[in-house]
Amino acid sequence: MNYPVLIAIIVILAVLLVVAIIVGRRKQRTTHLRNQFGSEYDRALQKHGNASRAEAELADREARVHKLSIRDLPASERNAFVTEWSAVQRRFVDDPSMAVSEADRLVTRVMTARGYPMGEFEQRADDISVDHPAVVQSYRSARDIVVRHGNGNATTEDLRQAMVYYHSLFDELLGLTRADVVEHETHEPLLKRAS
19, 56, 95, 159: most buried by Cβ count inside 10 Å? Predict the structure, then answer.
């Protein structure tokens, strides 16, 4: 075998190796982002119309949120928020509109307490999507109902659904499951764990 042919074979093998590494990394990135963002990955893909741009946006979100100082809340602060949520839910019976507005404000306060920046709504939703992808669509749906209600286009059933959406986000932000919350003897909700 002559020297130029050997060099050509080595160059071709090197190029194939580099291509295989690049393809492998892209597949890993896609798999990671699909697993991390769930249905939010599909939403970004639909929005951008191409995987490269969608994945770039999701990776940017992830990098942005990882730079933030997101913190878990101590039990006392979580208990205070749970107590407030209980009051908001009770208020829904008499004044659904007010209760939904208060639920929106309470969720915003929880986000602020956790360390999420309070910019425009879409930025908040994007930030939430990184660590809480399962409920970000609930947040968007609740917000949509609040906006429609402000325009006089939401029913009481819509407001009830907004409360359900806010509740799922609220629980997720506090790291609660239904088993974590018990009724205290005074019927005030308290967390089982003091963690």
Answer: 159
Q: Alpha-carbon distance 75 to 135, whole Å?
A: 22
Nearest CA-CA partner of 166 in 194, 195, 128, 118: 128
Cβ atoms of 54 and 45 closer than 8 Å: yes
Q: Quick one: CA dihedral 90, 95, 97, 101, positive or negative?
A: negative
13 and 108 co-located in one domain: no
pLDDT at 115: 94
Structural domain including 20 reads: 3-67
Angle made by CA atoms 138, 144, 149, in degrees to the nearest 5:
125
Q: For residue 38, what pLDDT band results from cuts at 50, 70 and 90? A: confident
Residue 79 sits in the same domain as residue 42: no
From the number of C-beta atoms within 10 Å of its C-beta (0-12, 13-18, 19+), residue 184 rates as exposed
Domain boundary among 36, 67, 98: 67
Total structural domains within the chain: 2
Tell me the C-alpha distance between 57 and 17, whole Å. Answer: 28
pLDDT of residue 186: 41
Residues 22 and 84 in one domain: no
Q: Are 100 and 159 within 8 A, CB to CB? A: yes
